[in-house]
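User: My instructor asked us to take a sequence, write out its structure as tokens, and then describe one feature of it. I'm not sure where to start. Here is the sequence I was given:
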Amino acid sequence: MDKYIEQHKKRLSYMPWLYYSLKPKQLQWAQTWQKDVQKKLTELETVKIGKDCFISPDAHIFAEPGRDIIIGNRVTIAANVVLHGPITIGDGVSLNSGVLIDGGAKGVFIGKNTRIASGVYIYAFNHATSPNRLIKDQPVISKGIHIGEDVWLSSNVGITDGNNIGSYSVVGMGAIVTHDVPEWAIVAGVPAKVIGDRRMSKDVFKANDKSPPNSD
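Assistant: Let's start with the prediction itself. The structure tokens for your sequence are:
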């Protein structure tokens, strides 16, 4: 039985939304496992973790004093995610495998119920580019990044420092965000440009429709 549990742990690490559909018998070992993973993390890093979260033991989370990471309730963090504070993550946020977020000096804020798909990278800092100084000797600049609530960042999106992503917006796969994204906007491309409005979407569900799995 142990080998099946280990395989299931690996599955959950890469597909953490499955954690919330485990059967009671599976939850017996899964909740104990998560309690241990999160306890070790809070002992080693300046991290605050809310209730009912899932954090893969294969995530890499670094938070020194002054670069705290605050994780809200029911947040999922998959394997191979790399986080370096300061970062604030709202309730219900999901970070899928391979996400990389560095808060720089000013930090990254992620609003509640935002979905961040695999391979997204978010850097809240940048280097100056003066021609009379080597790149390695340039000063580092940080303005911070604010991501609203109920946002969907599709796979392999990049967000550069100093930009705000408005609530309810969607950023298409592979887009590079170099300017603020308005609320409700659908953006795509390199650099990202507005191509639509989410309020005009034809994907309207009735109240009794069943939601698809939270896989991003």
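For the description part of your assignment, you could build on this observation: The longest helix spans residues 24-44. Try explaining in your own words what that tells you about the chain.
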